[in-house]
């Protein structure tokens, strides 16, 4: 029998998870959501056939699992509005709100709360996401399995054993889609300078990215070996790779990812506080 899940917030990430769960055979009668906007509630009910509520505390009364899918800036007030219900019913809390540490969520919910904090990324919207998860000390083994099942509805999942490692996840897969978009954007622009029309450059850049990722996923070889395999001595690819290396690409990537990690720490301090 499926556990009852209530999503607080019915935006894109929540809808991605709801859609993935229903597609995987999860009983939609066991899924509900809340949203302050009536039109959004009506849209979600019409799309997925689930119940939607305006009142968070009322909605989570019967929930075994509560998914916090609201903007980080509003998470504190949302948690405080449902803390009495959470303390009474003790559901598993799953947070998909970026940057808020589990200690802060636990404090806002009244303490002693089982919390799984997650760091998904935007490809989750098309069920190809990558999500890092961390469980606090109140989460049971069964609840870890429940959280993993829900997040797998939107892609792959990876557990980390220390919450601070979610900042590294943020720097890699959380922000990563933008890195690839930037690289594809630069390739498209250069291809047009080399004579291709915009449509052709766009199509070839995207298909090359998709094919490369698919090869890396399906191969037993690491990325360095795959790169060497398509780099013929004295060929065109070798000349381009040398140009990247001479320009310090690895150092550029290292500096960018460390900047993202540092910003994740700053945001957690700003949004959650250090108390």
UniProtKB/TrEMBL annotation:
Top-level taxon of origin: Bacteria
Enzyme Commission (EC) number: 1.5.1.2
Reactions catalysed according to its record: L-proline + NADP(+) = (S)-1-pyrroline-5-carboxylate + NADPH + 2 H(+); L-proline + NAD(+) = (S)-1-pyrroline-5-carboxylate + NADH + 2 H(+)
InterPro entries (alphabetical): 6-PGluconate_DH-like_C_sf, NAD(P)-bd_dom_sf, P5C_Rdtase_cat_N, P5CR_dimer, Pyrroline-COOH_reductase
Keyword tags: Amino-acid biosynthesis, Cytoplasm, NADP, Oxidoreductase, Proline biosynthesis
Enzyme class: oxidoreductase
Residue ranges constituting the Pyrroline-5-carboxylate reductase dimerisation domain according to the UniProt record: 163-267
GO MF annotations in UniProt: pyrroline-5-carboxylate reductase activity
Record-annotated membrane-spanning stretches: none
Pathway entry: Amino-acid biosynthesis; L-proline biosynthesis; L-proline from L-glutamate 5-semialdehyde: step 1/1
Domain Pyrroline-5-carboxylate reductase catalytic N-terminal: 5-99
Gene3D superfamilies: NAD(P)-binding Rossmann-like Domain (3.40.50.720), ProC C-terminal domain-like (1.10.3730.10)
Subcellular location: Cytoplasm
Similarity comment: family membership: Belongs to the pyrroline-5-carboxylate reductase family.
NCBIfam families: proC
Protein role: Catalyzes the reduction of 1-pyrroline-5-carboxylate (PCA) to L-proline.
Identification of the protein by name: Pyrroline-5-carboxylate reductase
Phylogenetic lineage: Bacteria, Pseudomonadati, Pseudomonadota, Gammaproteobacteria, Thiotrichales
């Amino acid at each position: 029998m499926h556990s009852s899940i209530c999503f607080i917030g019915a935006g894109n990430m929540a809808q991605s998870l709801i859609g993935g769960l229903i597609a995987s055979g999860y009983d939609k009668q066991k899924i509900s959501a809340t949203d302050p906007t009536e039109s959004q509630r009506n849209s979600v009910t019409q799309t997925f056939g689930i119940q939607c509520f305006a009142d968070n505390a009322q909605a989570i009364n019967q929930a075994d699992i509560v998914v916090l899918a609201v903007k980080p800036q509003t998470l504190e007030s949302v948690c405080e509005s449902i803390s009495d219900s959470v303390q009474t019913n003790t559901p598993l809390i799953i947070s998909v709100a970026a940057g808020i540490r589990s200690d802060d969520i636990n404090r806002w919910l009244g303490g002693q709360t089982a919390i799984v904090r997650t760091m998904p990324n935007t490809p989750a919207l098309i069920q190809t996401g990558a999500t890092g998860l961390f469980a606090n000390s109140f989460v049971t083994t069964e609840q870890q399995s429940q959280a993993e099942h829900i997040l797998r509805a939107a892609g792959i999942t990876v557990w980390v054993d220390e919450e601070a490692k979610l900042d590294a996840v943020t720097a890699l897969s959380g922000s990563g889609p933008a890195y690839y978009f930037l690289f594809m954007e630069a390739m498209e622009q250069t291809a047009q300078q080399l004579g291709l029309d915009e449509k052709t450059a766009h199509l070839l850049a995207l298909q090359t990215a998709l094919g490369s990722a698919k090869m890396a996923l399906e191969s037993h070889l690491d990325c360095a070996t795959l790169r060497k395999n398509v780099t013929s001595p004295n060929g065109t690819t070798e000349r381009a790779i040398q140009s990247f290396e001479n320009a310090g690409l690895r150092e550029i990537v290292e500096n960018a990812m460390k900047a993202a990690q540092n910003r994740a720490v700053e945001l957690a301090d700003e949004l959650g506080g250090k108390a």
